[in-house]
Amino acid sequence: NSEIVRALGTIKAYYDYGMFRPMQIAAIMALRHCEWAVEAQAKEYQRRRDVLCDGLKRLGWDITPPRASMFVWAKIPEPWAKMGSLDFAMKLLEQGDVVVSPGAGFGPAGEGYLRLALIENENRIRQAIRNIGRCLGAESKPLNSPIVTKA
Question: pTM for the complete prediction?
Answer without folding.
Answer: 0.73
